[in-house]
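Example 373, ligand pyridoxal-5'-phosphate.
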Amino acid sequence: MSAERSPPEGLLAALSMVREDVRAMQAYGVADAKGLIKLDAMENPYGVPRELKDELARRLTEVALNRYPDARANALRAEISNHVRLEPRLDILLGNGSDELINIIVLSCAKPGVSIMMLGPSFVMYRAAARMARVGCIEVPLAADFSLDVDAALAAIDKHKPQVIFVAYPNNPTGNLFSREKIEAIIHAAEGLVVIDEAYEAFSPDSFLPVVSQHPRLLLLRTFSKIGLAGIRLGYLIGATPLIAEFDKVRPPYNINALTQACARFMIEHQDVLVEQAAAIVAERDKLADAMARLPAIEVFPSAANFLLFRIRPALAPSAPALFALLKERGILIKDMSGAHPLLAHCLRVTVSTPADNLAFLNALEDALRAPR
Ligand SMILES: Cc1ncc(COP(=O)(O)O)c(C=O)c1O
């Protein structure tokens, strides 16, 4: 029998092997940015400067591609430890992006019947990790102004005793920093682990790094993705050495490929470039926020990250999906967040980019807001 005519029951039987909840899921959607100015994924627009590229290429050609990478990436971990001035009794776990580390943490703690907790709206992968590990995900809603509702969070901790609490600092997609005192209240009330996700730390005036060693249940998550290296997929987790050792058992072997290890080491040696780029993005963020705040049709929220969340005023502007489409017609790709969460009604998110990209976005935004409705 030819392949085309093979009975569909065979395929159905094959598909029935996959978990029902997986079959009901949607794959993580990534918009096609071909031909568009890409302002949807919080990437750094600058890339490796031309003057470093040849040296980086030379370094990468020295990598033994026929060999498995250093399984524990010891040299890279040592350089990151040095970079963050890691305190004694703390260790570092590397992940293929911080996404992988979120999965490792949740899987490691996924005892039957337990839950994790997040403050929503926040990064979607916390919930996704819980779903794949078959544990509950308690979402404590933020206040309407996206601040942390600490009473609700403490009540949820008391009621559900979450195994792990994820706090994004600054938060994605809202961009704000929650009150440090409120997060400390959560850390003190928690019986489980607390992960402070500092994916946007390079753009933020504050960090929990100095206090990780004071709380055995505290973990700090960071990524190279937002500082110009999204393509190499590298995240790191800092926590008490024995805890990191447990998570290390769940980490897939050789999860950090040899090219990523070499590239990250090279860029840490040249970190001044990344620091300069982040500073330029922060300056641009503040300029862009000021310019957007002058548009009566939108409200811009404060950001300590490399993106801005804004809400359209429905009486004065097209709907968020319509504005997204109008911007796309004008060559700009941002992210429509309006359907993602009840608190994000009428909201869109734009990544801060180069002065030229930001100006193109602003011009397109002003033009789109004038479009007939
Ligand atoms: C809060 C937060 N954590 C983690 C990540 C994942 O980053 P990575 O590229 O390291 O997987 C993101 C990505 O957008 C994020 O917003």
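Summary: Residues 42, 97-99, 123, 168, 172, 197, 199, 223, 225, 230, 235 surround pyridoxal-5'-phosphate (CB under 6 Å).
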